[in-house]
């Protein structure tokens, strides 16, 4: 996939990349660089589209140790629902599934629901059966051993159990959810192009600004026409 770039100098593009990697919003970037806001919007969207493609290609079948979890983004509580909210029940929130490899890399996928069939299909596609999997006690993870994942360890959040010995926890993926939600809150929750902002957060997680700038310049040269 190649994205066509607007007419602008390489020097200006590198300045925009720096602001993008510093997570400065488009309106502030336009003022800082004295460049038209529409031009900045164009480039920010172009970067996010390229990052999306890059991230989808980056995550091959994972080996090693993986933390899996789901989270919910977006809309508010459903009017008239008075029960305790569990796994998004009683909300119109968008469920998202996440895998964190314990070297910091994250994979996220927007899903229709958090049912066992849905979660297992992604796990089987993205995690090698030799991997060690850590999850919470959600029933959607039941039966992983039966489909070949013999190293599946769980923590029971319902019993206030958040970590066991020998590294049995899902703190890493939960930290990512916190990071992603803080970022998206800056964009007023992201009511459009959610999938691009989600992959943007996935790409940024755990990286310094210098690392992001180097990576984005490589992505730019691969996916955006010069």
Keywords:
single chain, alpha/beta, 5 strands
Helical fraction: 40-55%
How many strand segments? 5
Q: Could you report the average pLDDT, rounded to the nearest whole number?
A: 86
| H/E topology pattern | HHHEEEHEEHHH
- Cα separation of the termini: 13 Å
The radius of gyration over CA amounts to 19 Å
Q: Flag low-confidence runs.
A: 77-85
Strand coverage percent: 15-25%
Strand order of the largest sheet: 3-2-1-4-5
Biggest β-sheet strands, sense, barrel: 5 strands, mixed
Structural class: alpha/beta
Task: Tell the overall outline.
Answer: elongated
How many helical elements?
7
Give your account of this protein's structure.
The model is unreliable at 77-85 (pLDDT under 50). The protein has a five-stranded mixed β-sheet with strand order 3-2-1-4-5. A hairpin with a 4-residue loop joins strand 2 and strand 3. The chain has helices at 10-21, 26-33, 37-58, 116-126, 171-185, 194-204, 209-223; strands spanning 65-77, 91-101, 106-110, 132-136, 152-155. The chain is elongated. It is built from seven helices and five strands. Helix content is 42%, strand content 17%. With 226 residues, it is α/β, with parallel strands linked by helices.
